[in-house]
Every structure is written in C-alpha cells, then in structure tokens.
Amino acid sequence: MIKFIACDLDGTLLNSSKELPRDLRATVERLNKIGVTFAPASGRQYYKVLEQFEPISRNFMYIAENGAFVIKDGEVIVRDCLSGAVALDVIKRTRKLPSVYPILCCEDCAYMESSVGGYKPVEVGQYFRRLEFVPDLTDYCDTKNILKVAVYTPNDAYENIYKKLPEYPESAQIILSGREWVDVMKIGVSKGSAIKKVREICGWDKSECMCFGDYLNDYEMMFECGESFAMANAHEDLKKAAKHIAPSNDENGVMKSIQKWFGL
C-alpha cells in the first residue's frame, strides 16, 4: 500500500497559470485519513512552498531546494549543504554573465546582490518568500548553511548558464532545473536522494512510495518510488524513466491519477 506521495509543483501539480488544483484540500484530507503523507517536492525555497500550502493543511511534508532541505512536522530531517568554496566560484563566474542573476539559497533566507538595482524578476519573486539584497554575496559563503546557488536568466538557461560553468566533479553538480534556471548543489543531492533519506527515516519501502514530476530535476525520484508518474507534458527523458504517464498539469493530472489509484 502506498504511504507516501512526493509531487513536483511547476509543470506538475500547478497548471500553466501557476494555480493549485481546486480539489487538492479534499484529496489531501482523504489521503491523511488513510495514512498517506503528501509531500510537495520543489526546487523552490521552503518558506515559499510553506506559504502556498500551509493554508490547505498542516500535515504536509516539504521537500524543498530540489531535495537539499526537508521539513517534517516543523523539524528539519534532511539538510545537505553546498561547499562555500564552490558557491564562491559560481557567484564570481555568473555575476559576469549578461542578464544572469546568481541567488545564494541558504537555510534562513535567499540573497541577491544589490548591484542589480533591486531588480526582482517575476520568475524570482514567485519562488522566494524570504529574499534579501546584499552588497556582496561572497561575504556570505563562509557564514551560512548554503543549500544551493540558483542562477536565473530570462533567456535560455542551457546556453547562457549551464554551458558556461565548469564541472565540479568532487563536490558539486550543475542541474538544469528549468528553462530559465540552473541550480548548483552538493554532489549527489536531488529530490531522489531526499526521498531515499525520508524512506529510511520513516521506515517506508520503495514499493510504498509514489511520485509525480515533469522535468529533469525530477529524474532521480522516479527511481526512488515504486510507482512513478511523468506528466503528459513532461520532458521525454522523464517519460522514459517513469512507470506511468499521468494526464497533463493543465488537465489536473496529479489529482485525477491519485483519485483513481486510491478510489477517492
């Protein structure tokens, strides 16, 4: 029996207008009654995900920062930090690129440099609830618990960021987490690694876990859950990795699949 469901947000649970399903609250309440934990799993900051989901239910587990940070019952159960030296190097390299904005994502807050003149793109604002502007990000690399460096561009992130960064084979990984985003994280950290740790902590077998995703930052979790779903609108590589295909995010695919599976 399924006891745990991890669900990506953008392109998966949220529709193209960034709206939550109308039947999410009722569905989660029914899942809770039969002992199933529902976990939003996102590259977003924990505080932003909490802001969106806490009004619906207080029983969520939160997998944030693409798996680097997991909260259960208000307690941190997973915290995988990036090396300050790697963060420093990424910031120095990306701040030189045109229309590219590094964001230092720490446990307490996210930070951007005030040299951007207070520029806060809509794409940045919708992912961070706690965001401060500081004179120099490099001042924070040795003093903060760094979960990742998120790098944003309004242009093609693959061409303008991903291809411009070097490899960090011993300490970090570079993840294309969206069409406009690149995340630099501790090596081996992903939504999949977070789910594996959650399973160990909670005593859940892989066969008791389900997940939903649409993009490449969801790839690893497809292999950590016995029942994995890629959305109809998902990246083709994710569809190949998933066990099932759910209707698209604009067809309320996650809720329809869960309701069908559990007979809700």
Q: What would you give as the CATH superfamily of the largest domain?
A: HAD superfamily/HAD-like
Give the helix level as a range of percent.
25-40%
CATH architecture heading of the largest domain: 3-Layer(aba) Sandwich
Provide the structure class: alpha/beta
Reported for the largest beta sheet, the result is:
6 strands, mixed
* Overall tally of structural domains: 2
User: What proportion of the residues form beta strands (DSSP E)?
Assistant: 25-35%
User: What is the level 1 CATH name of the largest domain?
Assistant: Alpha Beta
Give me the count of strands: 14
Count of alpha and pi helical runs: 9
**Widest β-sheet, arrangement of strands:** 8-7-6-9-11-10
Radius of gyration over alpha carbons?
Answer: 18 Å
Order of helices and strands: EHHEHEEEHEEHEEHEEHEEHEH
CATH topology (level 3) name of the largest domain:
Rossmann fold
The rough form would be described as globular
The span between the termini is 15 Å
Which stretches are poorly predicted, pLDDT < 50 over at least 5 residues?
none
The whole-number mean of residue pLDDT values reads: 92
Keyphrases for this structure?
single chain; 264 residues; alpha/beta; Rossmann fold; Hypothetical Protein, Haloacid Dehalogenase-like Hydrolase, Chain: A, domain 2; 2 domains; 6-stranded mixed sheet; 5-stranded parallel sheet; 9 helices; 26% strand; HAD_sf; Cof-like hydrolase; HAD-like_sf; magnesium ion binding
